[in-house]
Design brief:
This protein is an all-alpha fold. Helix content is 78%, strand content 0%. It starts with a helix and ends with a helix.
């Protein structure tokens, strides 16, 4: 994508330069390379770097949790309790999403935790997957890279992002688990 964008920028350099000068009439000495590298690439890195770092840290934490010897004990404790079986994968998804931050990592980690319990819970892999997915919608907040991407994409500050990203995700998670 980056190489293609640079190619297009150079191929359409007259249009790019005109558009830039129309927006920035005081900047008369900028070159096409300057626009593409200092403006386009740097802005792209600013938008993408934080979500990539958050996702990487979440993935590392998920890997540590999956390798923990306590997973077997947790499985035994949960399956012997009186919790409604469909709430177990959902709850683990919620906990993982809150702790890890990345929906993908939370879902994968929750699946690794729930998989040994499926027989004892009496859930099909499909129901467990759907329940985990609903759980990972809950608490989509500041430690999730998707939260920041959506906030930046819609030019929202943190407070607005919580209002327009986190709250609808909480509602969606609850509605989904109630429908199961």
């Amino acid at each position: 994508g980056l190489i293609y964008s640079i190619y297009l920028g150079y191929a359409q350099r007259n249009y790019v330069m005109k558009a830039y000068r129309d927006l920035n009439p005081q900047d008369t000495k900028t070159t096409i390379s300057n626009i593409m590298l200092d403006k386009w690439v740097v802005r792209g890195l600013i938008v993408a770097l934080l979500p990539l770092l958050v996702t990487g840290m979440g993935g590392s934490f998920g890997g540590i949790l999956k390798a923990s010897p306590a997973i077997k004990g947790l499985s035994d404790m949960i399956t012997s309790s009186n919790i409604l079986p469909i709430l177990v994968p959902w709850g683990i998804g919620v906990i993982m999403m809150t702790a890890v931050g990345s929906m993908t990592m939370a879902g994968m980690t929750a699946a690794a935790i729930v998989h040994p319990m499926l027989g004892d819970l009496g859930l099909s892999p499909l129901m467990a997957t759907m329940s985990i997915g609903a759980g990972t919608l809950m608490f989509n907040h500041v430690n999730n890279s998707g939260f920041w991407v959506m906030g930046q994409f819609f030019n929202l500050d943190t407070k607005q992002s919580i209002k327009y990203v986190t709250v609808p995700c909480v509602v969606a998670s609850i509605v989904l688990i109630l429908c199961m």
